[in-house]
Amino acid sequence: METISNTVWQRKGSSVIFDSKSLGEFIAEGAVISLRHLLSWSQGFPVDPPVTGHTILVSGLETIIETMEPQVAEEFLARTIRPLLKNLQSRWPACGVVFGFSSHANAFEETVLNEEVLFRRRDRRTVRLSDGLWDGSASLLLKRVNRQGEEGGDVIVGYYVDRIS
Fold first, then answer.
1. 20-40 burial code (b ≥16 CB/10 A, e <16)
2. Which structural domain range is residue 49 located in?
3. Which residues pair with 55 in a beta bridge?
4. I want to staple 146 with a disulfide (CB 3.0 to 4.6 A). Which of 60, 134, 154, 159 is the partner?
5. How many domains does the chain have?
């Protein structure tokens, strides 16, 4: 899986970010919307993005994934979230959508052969996160997002797909 350490994930495409330091600036800027707000766009998108910058931080997806049965959560991602992301990337190509997670990096597992990201819930059950969100785009376009750590090494902060096909 390719790794990026730039900020392109903030300006286009969609990502799952679980690093509080990487999410902090968007929270401070008021770039956060609820999952419920995002879901309301299935009835009609606003003319302009709801934030002043180029990043829309969505809160609440982790809670949904934690509370639904894993298979139901995967179907929710594929049938509800993915179509919204496709529509959003066409409407606002200069906006990045970031799903903020509070789980530790250890809750995310990269499969070796499929280049897929799995989310291990608190009850230890697994949800196929990248397949649900990004479908076939995930295996070809999925990138690991890194930032510089305090002690000099790279820290994985999330996963990113530039465009869902």
1. eebbeebeeeebbbebeebee
2. 2-161
3. 96
4. 154
5. 1
